[in-house]
Amino acid sequence: MKMTDTVRQILRNYEGENPGVKAKLCSMLMQGKLAGTGKMIILPVDQGFEHGPARTFAPNPAGYDPHYHYQLAIDAGLNAYAAPLGQLEAGADTFAGQIPTILKLNSANSLMSDTAGKNQAITGSVDDALRLGCAAIGFTIYPGSDMALDMFEEIVEMRREAAACGIATVIWSYPRGEAISKSGETAIDIAAYAAQIAALIGAHVIKIKLSTDHLELPEAKKVYEEQSIDIATQAARVRHCMEASFNGRRIVVFSGGAKKGTDSVYDDARAIRDGGGNGSIIGRNSFQRSREDALEMLQNLVDIYLGKA
Amino acid sequence: MKMTDTVRQILRNYEGENPGVKAKLCSMLMQGKLAGTGKMIILPVDQGFEHGPARTFAPNPAGYDPHYHYQLAIDAGLNAYAAPLGQLEAGADTFAGQIPTILKLNSANSLMSDTAGKNQAITGSVDDALRLGCAAIGFTIYPGSDMALDMFEEIVEMRREAAACGIATVIWSYPRGEAISKSGETAIDIAAYAAQIAALIGAHVIKIKLSTDHLELPEAKKVYEEQSIDIATQAARVRHCMEASFNGRRIVVFSGGAKKGTDSVYDDARAIRDGGGNGSIIGRNSFQRSREDALEMLQNLVDIYLGKA
Amino acid sequence: MKMTDTVRQILRNYEGENPGVKAKLCSMLMQGKLAGTGKMIILPVDQGFEHGPARTFAPNPAGYDPHYHYQLAIDAGLNAYAAPLGQLEAGADTFAGQIPTILKLNSANSLMSDTAGKNQAITGSVDDALRLGCAAIGFTIYPGSDMALDMFEEIVEMRREAAACGIATVIWSYPRGEAISKSGETAIDIAAYAAQIAALIGAHVIKIKLSTDHLELPEAKKVYEEQSIDIATQAARVRHCMEASFNGRRIVVFSGGAKKGTDSVYDDARAIRDGGGNGSIIGRNSFQRSREDALEMLQNLVDIYLGKA
Amino acid sequence: MKMTDTVRQILRNYEGENPGVKAKLCSMLMQGKLAGTGKMIILPVDQGFEHGPARTFAPNPAGYDPHYHYQLAIDAGLNAYAAPLGQLEAGADTFAGQIPTILKLNSANSLMSDTAGKNQAITGSVDDALRLGCAAIGFTIYPGSDMALDMFEEIVEMRREAAACGIATVIWSYPRGEAISKSGETAIDIAAYAAQIAALIGAHVIKIKLSTDHLELPEAKKVYEEQSIDIATQAARVRHCMEASFNGRRIVVFSGGAKKGTDSVYDDARAIRDGGGNGSIIGRNSFQRSREDALEMLQNLVDIYLGKA
Amino acid sequence: MKMTDTVRQILRNYEGENPGVKAKLCSMLMQGKLAGTGKMIILPVDQGFEHGPARTFAPNPAGYDPHYHYQLAIDAGLNAYAAPLGQLEAGADTFAGQIPTILKLNSANSLMSDTAGKNQAITGSVDDALRLGCAAIGFTIYPGSDMALDMFEEIVEMRREAAACGIATVIWSYPRGEAISKSGETAIDIAAYAAQIAALIGAHVIKIKLSTDHLELPEAKKVYEEQSIDIATQAARVRHCMEASFNGRRIVVFSGGAKKGTDSVYDDARAIRDGGGNGSIIGRNSFQRSREDALEMLQNLVDIYLGKA
């Protein structure tokens, strides 16, 4: 399939990057029902690691089988499927070449004491990504954690290694930790800051959460008020986060969190679209529904990003 | 001996893996009295490290000699023998080629203060496993420990190195540490979670403990109750752990703990069998009995797995 | 453009260095409106990392776009442009060869708790600097921090690697941390010490802050008083810092801090010039003004360094 | 000199080992007055590091000179001489080929605060051992210390490197640290455990202290009493430690500690001999006596091991 | 210049060492006014790092310029000049081949909080020493610090690397830290211990401080008294430190500390000479005087070591 001008324009923004990485970004942008539009929907399945298997898959037990998610992403016409090592490996041969995959290289879990700090374990490598034919590596950073500097350094090194092999890098930039309050984790100033950091350390695709109009840092609050930065609506906040991502020179996708009603999911997508974001990364809201419901909901999301809904 | 269809089907689940690793998994699955059935009994002897020599071997002093265990595993027709470096080396030449061996790469000991944290020392390497002709490396992780992320990262790296050399990886996934209560160590939600983590970080064979119907994590408890997950019997709990192991796409063996009566050992095995587990890993219950008693008990276990008892 | 005698004399001071590094220093000294004078003005844009995007760019939103800063530095006839990895990459191709760039290899951020310590994350590498065609690497050290020894060791190693590839090293020597009071961070004894440390660990270009006449360390205070060291004026303090930089054998540029009135900026520059310093590194005072105002102000700074204002 | 059957039988126990390592073990077993008997006396001189030079050498100042100890070991007909890097180097050329040497790779010192933890510095390498023509490397572990896991990992790695070069490994297994009481350091259950750990992590020669009949660990105490393990005499305790050393498949030498009367030294040696131990490692009791006295005492020890005294 | 018998005898003590290292030791011993005598005077200039530039150079501002010290060492006919990386580099070309240089590889600074611990930063490498044509590397260890084990390990590794390239190693052994009182830092038992440690970890040249007759460690005190070790005079203490340095098989030079009257400097030198020490390492007492005074004082020191004063 021939690259569209929209995609060509997006790739042009990765000025420092080699053709190999651009080809991988292209493969994700030219995949599925949103191919060529510059919009993306990604299916991530790492919640079994983060929350445990029962909390993740019991609502729709078909999801215990790693094959289920590959098939769902393919049948729904999504752009990419992201998961940790074992999860990807369990279907790597059956579904080879049918959908771009993102190897999630680090993961948290719910079996850690508070004193252990906010951090994730590195559970995969660039070599694994190459061996499994992945389009990208995925990595979570926790801006605000006392471990943040280490996490930045880890992904910077793995990104370099990956790019040298023609593999793209997706950074999950999730504020969390000692320096941030609970409501600060989704504050708009923090969200924009998280996007900026991901861009600065070299993310090709940035994944952040949708935010609230809360302002966490006093020094930032002052500036938002003095400069009358528009953060009143979700669309406005998405737009501000795009500014913070090199004024839109980087692909940014937004996640919606725990399972909720479809109307709420659709509202999120419209805000992302209207604010100029590149799309959704949507896990529990996909696979914790029945396959039938999930396919219907994902089709509606596609229609929203196509401007039809 | 020709591979059976049952074994072929099991190996097919390791989609990302190379023929070398599959050959080693095959060598264990096609060994001994359970050859070809997809069931396994493994003899592990690392308790001298974990509890000291007298507590481990004094009940049956013949066990002080490393040769004893090789011979026991061979004569009982088991699938594999697992031990730390020195223990394996002490019989590596005499018993070469007679039974697949698993080099246990890390070990805890009972001479550590509480402040030292829950961790194990790495006491062997993939090079050692190659040099000694081992079929697999073994590694313990402690989900729930403040050292867990480090342990995950260690085995992920060694697994990668081992697989590249055609050596399989067995992960002992033993919940323990700051984030877990004593009864939580054997809670079913934690056991399933431990199996899931081992699968996600790339275990070819997962070793977990049999569990109780206790539910440790409040958020998990809610889901188990809402979704009415069946955890009433040991067999049901084994079945749930198999679900958590990629819906049975990974080999899972269960351990029984300290020495106890044979009836109890047999009950465990029947539950493992009925729940769809792949078998037992049974140390102290084997070698702390006299050789004669152990051989009889192990024969009975074989019969249980063969469906004859 | 032919090297001037002034520049030749400066380069002669780098006795241990190879021609590759000297060529890069030359490229910066022979660039822009101050070419050949031995004076420099550098534009640094890493405040988005340090303070977040809104605090940094909202006063002049054009700055959200990384291209803006390249263009500003070129149009103002500056000597070099310094920024972190992502920021440089976003314009690396468009502006290749038009202005020497300095890849800032480490960065702090405002999302760190007090217990996390004073440190920065390494977010780039010498390989990145080579790949992006940079003239130099930049690195911040925090003399006075409990992490200072680590930071010294990091840049010493990266400097060695960079120099071996013919890339120069700029060290931001910013006193900060457990051993220093707030007013000590800009005390003259500390500033001179910071310059000395940067010189001793191998900086080719030293960046320090302008200082006050406060004396922080009791043992140093005694010496300043006994020896009647002149620290009464900003120019005298600049002169003292040049002494501490191998008696002027190293290039030293001074930064002015947060945005302030242009008169104050000009006063600083005159003091730097009169004290024998090599120039200014001026970020927020450049890009937080409108492009028009910034260009006017930078022209006036050039005139000051040319002795015309 | 032709290898005796006794030595051949001992070497046969190192089943996993290459001929290079066996040759080095052979060189020590076939050296001096006990050559071929399977018994050994080793002279270790690392106390200058551990206690300082005056406490170590002032009682017999000839010992300040490193040549003294080489000559003593040679003239007394001992099996090997063990010392840290500088100490060995100072006579390496003069005495080359005259006695097998053991390069002690780590050392403690008496200038450490309690908060620094129980640990040793690594002060030599396998490359040094090769360069100096050593028969073995020596390494101390502290089972019971919070640093024990690190120490295990260090020697495991160095042992692997050494064995690959045909150099044997001697492990000093000295219980010490946060998990052990003062009397526990010489308790028999701990001594046997220390021997077991050394064997499991791959020691070719194990060095432990003679023990008391104290039992430190409650769980172990129970087993010793239930199983009526004989620990009443020193010989019985030596025998038990040999059991814990793979039932005698590993060479074990015993140390006697600070300087004491010769009768006591002889009693120790008879207990080691009668319990089936392989010999003595005897430092301060050798070199803190005059050369004449030391030679006489060492001859008597030889006679004891030969069964003549 | 032909090597003297005295020097040949000294070099013979380095039995484990290669000709490259011996040649470098020879180059220092055969340099300047003490050439061939086995005595040495070394000029060290790392106090700018340790105490800051003003405290170090303001008393004689000519010293701000790194060239000053090269020239002073050459004109005074000293044996070697030691300084950190930047300081050496700043004159490396101008003075190449005129005097042996020692690259000081680690340095402390006065901007560290108490909680940061007693340690130094590594600010140079063996590669730097090679590139700059140095005769030796210099490294400080702090016996008594909680960081001491790390420091020992660092220099052991760098010494090995340096020796393999034919570069000698000078160890500054300076007791300091949590395990030692202030007066203990110069106690004779500690000084001798510090010399012994430096010798054991492989120093070719040992640098220690002159000591007092204070005895710090109770266990050592007992031995000094029992054995009546002569520590009454500075010369006796120097002699004892030479004993602790392999009975004189290692070169030992002594430092005198902060600036003081010349008589006191001469007394120190006579004690070093009379106690059998190899010479002085003398920094602040040299360069904090006017050049004229320094040259006169250094000539007098030469005369003392030549036995003429």
UniProtKB/TrEMBL annotation, chains A, B, C, D, E:
InterPro entries: Aldolase_TIM (IPR013785), DeoC/FbaB/LacD_aldolase (IPR002915), DeoC/FbaB_aldolase (IPR050456), FbaB-like (IPR041720)
GO molecular function per UniProt: fructose-bisphosphate aldolase activity
Gene Ontology process terms (BP): glycolytic process
E.C. number: 4.1.2.13
UniProt entry tagged with the keyword Lyase: yes
Keyword Translocase attributed: no
Enzyme kind, highest EC tier: lyase
Active site: Y174 (proton donor), K207 (schiff-base intermediate with dihydroxyacetone-p)
Keywords: Lyase, Schiff base
NCBIfam families membership: PRK09250.1-1 (NF006704)
Family to which this protein belongs: Belongs to the DeoC/FbaB aldolase family. FbaB subfamily.
Protein name: fructose-bisphosphate aldolase
Species per Swiss-Prot/TrEMBL record: Meridianimarinicoccus roseus
